[in-house]
Amino acid sequence: MPAVTAKNPLALPRVRTLDPSTDRARPVVSVTTAPKGFEGEGFPVRRAFAGVDLRALDPFVHMDQMGEVEYAPGEPKGTPWHPHRGFETVTYMIDGEMAHSDSNGGGGLIGGGDTQWMTAGAGILHIETPPEHLVASGGVFHGLQLWVNLPRDKKFAAPRYQDITGEKVALLSSGDGGALVRVIAGEVDGHAGPGSTYTPITLVHATIAPGASLTLPWRADFNALAYVLAGDGSVGAQARPIGAGQLAVFGAGDSITIAADERQDSRHSALDVYILGGLPIREPIAMYGPFVMNTKAEVVEAFEDFQAGRLGSIPAAHADVHGDGEGEPLTG
Q1: Could you state, in order of their start, the residue ranges of all structural domains in the chain?
Q2: How many CB atoms lie within 10 A of CB 217?
Q3: Residues making up the binding site for Fe cation
Q4: Which neighbouring-strand residues pair with 288?
Q5: How far apart are CA 123 and CA 83, in angstroms?
Q6: If residue 41 lies in a helix (H) or strand (E), which one and from where to where?
Q7: pLDDT tens for residues 83-133?
Q8: Which CATH architecture has domain 9-318?
Q9: What pLDDT is attached to residue 317?
Q10: How buried is 330 (Cβ within 10 angstroms: 0-12 exposed, 13-18 middle, 19+ buried)?
Q11: Cβ–Cβ contacts within 10 Å for residue 305, how many?
Q12: Is the pLDDT of residue 208 over 60?
């Protein structure tokens, strides 16, 4: 169950009711199913964007659903130290905990409903691991990691770290109280989330009760994506079926609609969906491993800078933990 909830959604600010004569509903362009794989030291993931054209995702380039998995004692895994340059990582935890440390001095522990936002920019080294007590006890682990591209003039921005706890997100309700909307970054209907972004984007986690529907106003110049974390429902005015582990890509328009089926499976009491969109950057992308640049020459330079130690160094407190990659997607 999502950690950030509301006892009475009807007491929250409401998303305005849209006028179908002026607000164009976005059609559903595609629904794809995320394949399963493994990340870092072996924790299971689903590659949410696999098979989707980067032009439809822009300004996003990659997203992993981490879990949902229930670990036995001793099983929780993380990633070794590894570099990044040219983009931002956004890690959102639904269940379990994850600890972050980086070569810029950023770090912290996030649990259910919390977000870690790391701007790699010019270059950084970081590590993500479950805390020792979770390794010892085991437990449920579920989250998302999103990669947000940076435009050419921000590729070498100074690295920074944001720790966004769950109680900081903006909470909204659909008009009838059937959906709880958590705004993590950007804004929905004039309500802003706490995440500070270089690239204009909106990130939302919505929980929709069985039989309920959610229609959100959405900036016409943003793209629009919806990834189902749990449950079953439909997307768009044509009510195209969608379920856990599937991504919907919407076309042009002013609003998006997502509905939950009347019947949900025994493990989930509602439809949980991660909704995201942003202003397309429309610049060339050269992505390989942990680097997202504009040209292959810049990717080569990033590897050379990493090997020469110019992306930072592992802090002394962590110097006994080594690693140089996390099994991330290798895309030419």
Answers
A1: 9-318
A2: 15
A3: 82, 84, 126, 128
A4: 291
A5: 7
A6: none
A7: 999 999 999 999 888 888 889 888 888 888 999 999 999 999 998 888 888
A8: Sandwich (2.60)
A9: 60
A10: exposed
A11: 17
A12: yes
